[in-house]
Amino acid sequence: MLIYTSNVKGGDFLNKKVLVGLTSLALVFSAQTAFAKGGELETEIISNENTITLDWNGTGDKYEVYSDGKLLWKGTESKYVHKNLKPRSPQEYDIVSYENGKRKEMVSVDTTTLPEQRISTQDVSDEDMPDPLKTEEHIDSTINDNVLTLKLRGKIQDDFDGKIEVYKDDELIDNNAGTTFVDDEVESGKTYVYKFVVMKKLSPAEIEKVNEEFENRGQKLSFNQVKDYYYRPYEYIKAVKIPEKNEKMNSLAWEPPVGPHSNQIGIKYRTFIPTKYAPAKSIITGWIGQDKFGGDNRSFSFSGGSHRTQTEAVARFTSSGSTTYFKKNVNYTKLYDKNGKFKKQRKPTDKNITFTQGKKDKSMDYFVIKHDAKVGFNDFGLATPSIDYTAGVVAYKNGRVTVSGTRDQAPSHEMYAYIPYSDVMVTLFRASNKGFNYLFPPMPSAKMSINIRL
């Protein structure tokens, strides 16, 4: 069993958030605690493989605990233990307090049980396959009166300077946060995507390979580049709806890889070059001359514009089980001269973009997408890097989606979850191109861990 407790720490942004609306309250911060503007209801979350314990402070004389709109428990005690749960199963709760027969306040909780110590998933034998069912890290969230508290739990440690960065909708809002973050600048009816970024140092062998790569290029690694090349970013992402509100998605010139059905969840992953052109020598080591590869010349988009590669998977749930549909697409690599005059094009192979089915049943569907895509041609036998990522996805019938895996930090990457043939879509992450040198194997990839509910 793991019990997480910590102090909230952070920069000016976090200090301001805690002070607004809470200046009259003396609060003890625990790892999974919800705070309300003027409210008093706080809860601690204690998780193990098969149970979740909610232990809250006594703000009333009677309490009720709900999950998915169903009453789980009611009584006068300020503690509830949810038993007989599956390992690594997401859970949502609403704790309601009453005083003198009248409803006083409510706190909403989003958490998960811990993974089983030894778990096997059928048809997926590769030890390197990312599996969200095994991931210990998770972001718990509690909401009380439009105050959101996020708690990143698991084995979390920043190796660079001990500081954790927190992003809200891709905007850095705290560069010195702890594992607990409070945001009271949220609005009902909106969806927010939060990202905790922790830097983990590469192994000595990996660092040596990075140094060798720079030496082979005749370059020296500067002090300001140490963080970028000696450390791997671990990204923990969670989308929170306050309350649920659907986002519109552009569906022009795009169709899901499967027809309409009453219960299905889709995943889309796109890679693209945001500029109109990219110097060929910036992508292929040893390329001589001023030739350019064509880019996609766009910003982030669910379905608009072109892409280098795109993969999609849809999990369909029925009364007898679940079925997964997979689709992949790669676009032509186009070569231009230094003046932008078209020279030739060639379509890359998609044989190294693969789908592997894992465990699935009537309530969940686990699969892995492995992506290894090169440029369309290489006439001179030079080293050609690949766009690599591996995403392990678990889609749940109730709309929950969890993702874990790794990705290159070039070019731009974006990932979405959606319900086919509807306007329901959530951005899982959007990552800008950090530089094409990140396509080469010695350079650190990024780790991702995502948890959302559609």
From TrEMBL:
InterPro entries per the UniProt record, alphabetical: DUF3238 (IPR021631)
Leader sequence segment: 1-36
Pfam families in the cross-refs: DUF3238
Taxonomic lineage of the native organism: Bacteria, Bacillati, Bacillota, Bacilli, Bacillales
Keyword annotations from UniProtKB, A to Z: Signal
Descriptive protein name: DUF3238 domain-containing protein
